[in-house]
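Re: beginner question about structure tokens

> Can someone show what the tokenized structure looks like for a real chain? I only ever see the sequence side.

Sure, here's an example I had lying around. Input first:
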Amino acid sequence: MRKPLMMAAAAACLPLLLGACGSESEAPVEAAPEAPDGISVSDGRMNLPAILGNPAAVYFAITNGSEAPAILRAAYVDAAEEAMLHASVEVDGVMRMEHQESIAIAPGETVNFAPGGLHVMAMDLDPALEPGGTVEVTLTFESGDKVSFPVQIRAPGDAS
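And the corresponding structure tokens:
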């Protein structure tokens, strides 16, 4: 009695198993997360480090044109092993960088990531990066939404 039941169950699952063996192009594709409503990014650029092996700095302007606050939580830079949100701050007369867990962008506000302030640190860069090229940056928000944009790669010391 048990054997016919197991055979029937296996036969019922066979089409599902065979369907899973199809090519990758037949698999359903999930839509990528979209940027939160009203978020736009402009003026993206990455300054390569003067010393090979040091991190690069990524700068841009991010605008929240919506009526709700947006909370930036993370950054990803193609061609970098790691990227972190940082702020340059002065402590007891000495400039230093501090990791930022999140950055709030109020409704109607533009937050500038610029030298001497907020920036994305891109570490362990691909040595193939060259001034004049571009690289993709992806920002992740508290909501899980993401926005990706290209940034121009600049030589060390280029005007930011």
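Each token stands for a local structural state, so reading them left to right follows the chain. Residues 2-19 form the longest helix (18 residues).
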